[in-house]
Amino acid sequence: MADVWITANAAEKVRQLLDDSLKGLPHGVRTALPKKWTPKDGTAVTVVSDGAPVSDRAWTREVVRVTVHSLDIVSARRVMALIDGILTTPSIRTMGLPIQPATGIIAAADSKVSGYMSSAAYTVSLPRIAMKEVIRHG
User: Fold this and answer.
1) Are 15 and 31 in contact (CB under 8 A)?
2) How many angstroms separate the CA atoms of 65 and 98, rounded?
3) Could you give the angle at which helices 10-21 and 73-88 cross, rounded to 10 degrees?
4) Which of 3, 28, 117, 118 has its CB 3.0 to 4.6 Å from that of 110, i.e. a possible disulfide?
5) pLDDT digits (tens, 9 = 90+) for 62-100
6) What tens digit of pLDDT does each residue of 110-130 get?
7) CB atoms < 10 A from the CB of 4, how many?
8) Would you say 79 and 43 are in contact if contact means Cβ atoms under 8 Å apart?
9) Which of 127, 99, 132 is nearest to 14 (CA)?
């Protein structure tokens, strides 16, 4: 076996942090909207990777996008502001997860699923993690 150093999944770490912090959401924090979701089903939050623009041998800096979908723009913006506070306020929750704002918060009508959305991106710097790989010969 040889050590292979892979990119840590920053989006999953942010998703877990937010899911633990925002217990009152009807759909939790997910990687995609629930099937057949509509704004009448309640606020939904998604977290996805926007890629790793900086990648080094020992660490990566990944851009993570957080989006709030809601029935009205005020609610979407309010929940996104709370999420921004959770992610950018130094606390015991974010220790070991270096997060920096990458964009400001935007809010707009959501033309794909109706309702409204609010979104922001964050950079998360993490060391690569070791994964054992079996090397097979011939």
Assistant:
1) yes
2) 15
3) 110
4) 117
5) 999 999 999 999 999 999 999 999 999 887 777 778 899
6) 988 889 999 999 999 998 888
7) 12
8) yes
9) 99
